[in-house]
């Protein structure tokens, strides 16, 4: 279940409009794609697994899976790729593109929503449109327990308490026996409201004199 082939340089131009990257940025990102893939037409999870800067990242799995998640191709398709070509790689990278001086306020808002959606998809691993307690637990446990300063049970307790707080905020009239199905995208937007996204979403592990940053929260 692969993806499209790597595009030759004369065909870069059609990706400028699709991603918002400049032609020079696309050329640079293609060089990094070739480094990661070993000059192959596609990148696999194994290629990204070998990136040294990702080795100790507590959400390494979620970051890698985000590159193969079809939802991050700016469409509504669910599922994941076994491998991705340059176009798919570039579409994922476009979620991390910062605004320029020419970016309008309307465009900035659209870019922010894309970034929030990208983060939401990383947590909503089954693609059902909700971040469930189980999914939330998994991320919090990985973030906290892998730091070596807190055990898995303590991390789970923190996740449960945080989810309960989110539930009480988003559904204030919940009864004691009501079940909170999970965080919707709308709830997730409210949680991140006011959070400055540009300094918190970048891609340092792809750095090759081209792109800078890494997903952090």
UniProtKB/TrEMBL annotation:
<dbReference type="InterPro" id="IPR011992">
    <property type="entry name" value="EF-hand-dom_pair"/>
</dbReference>
<dbReference type="InterPro" id="IPR002048">
    <property type="entry name" value="EF_hand_dom"/>
</dbReference>
<dbReference type="GO" id="GO:0030027">
    <property type="term" value="C:lamellipodium"/>
</dbReference>
<dbReference type="GO" id="GO:0004860">
    <property type="term" value="F:protein kinase inhibitor activity"/>
</dbReference>
<protein>
    <recommendedName>
        <fullName>Calcineurin B homologous protein 3</fullName>
    </recommendedName>
</protein>
<keyword id="KW-0966">Cell projection</keyword>
<keyword id="KW-1003">Cell membrane</keyword>
<dbReference type="GO" id="GO:0005737">
    <property type="term" value="C:cytoplasm"/>
</dbReference>
<keyword id="KW-0519">Myristate</keyword>
<keyword id="KW-0221">Differentiation</keyword>
<keyword id="KW-0539">Nucleus</keyword>
<dbReference type="GO" id="GO:0005634">
    <property type="term" value="C:nucleus"/>
</dbReference>
<dbReference type="InterPro" id="IPR052490">
    <property type="entry name" value="CHP3"/>
</dbReference>
<dbReference type="GO" id="GO:0005509">
    <property type="term" value="F:calcium ion binding"/>
</dbReference>
<keyword id="KW-0106">Calcium</keyword>
<dbReference type="Pfam" id="PF00036">
    <property type="entry name" value="EF-hand_1"/>
</dbReference>
<dbReference type="GO" id="GO:0032587">
    <property type="term" value="C:ruffle membrane"/>
</dbReference>
<dbReference type="GO" id="GO:0030154">
    <property type="term" value="P:cell differentiation"/>
</dbReference>
<comment type="similarity">
    <text>Belongs to the calcineurin regulatory subunit family. CHP subfamily.</text>
</comment>
<keyword id="KW-0472">Membrane</keyword>
<feature type="domain" description="EF-hand">
    <location>
        <begin position="111"/>
        <end position="146"/>
    </location>
</feature>
<keyword id="KW-0449">Lipoprotein</keyword>
<keyword id="KW-0649">Protein kinase inhibitor</keyword>
<keyword id="KW-0963">Cytoplasm</keyword>
<dbReference type="InterPro" id="IPR018247">
    <property type="entry name" value="EF_Hand_1_Ca_BS"/>
</dbReference>
<keyword id="KW-0479">Metal-binding</keyword>
